[in-house]
Amino acid sequence: MIFWHLLQSLHIAVWVYALYTALSIQTSESWILFSIFFLINLLQFLFISDDIGRDRGFSGGQSFVMTILLGFSWWYPLKQKKEF
Question: Which of 5, 26, 75, 76 is buried most deeply by CB count within 10 Å?
């Protein structure tokens, strides 16, 4: 369980870093980093986490926010529990 909390904290830290560099440095590379990170999380929501969240009773909005903030670290343990 500590592993997943650490991953969630690191995911939020990457968001903070990407947003900080995009807003303060304002180079095209920093905006590309932010855009790629957002796109990865958005695709993850569209193709994976929304279905898992709805199976577990989460709304689409809750699944979206958790996927954007925490990435795969919130839905992957739920997926593993479902398979057993």
Answer: 75
DSSP result, 35-77: HHHHHHHHHHIIIIIHHHHHHTT--HHHHHHHHHHHGGGTTHH
Residue 84's Cβ-count burial label (10 Å; 0-12, 13-18, 19+) is exposed
Burial 9-22 (b: 16+ CB within 10 A, else e): eebeeebeebeebb
Number of Cβ within 10 Å of residue 75's Cβ equals 24
Which tokens hold the place of 25?
A: 């440095």
Q: pLDDT (tens digit, 9 = 90+) per residue, 8-38? A: 899 899 889 888 888 888 788 888 888 998 9
What is the chain's length? 84
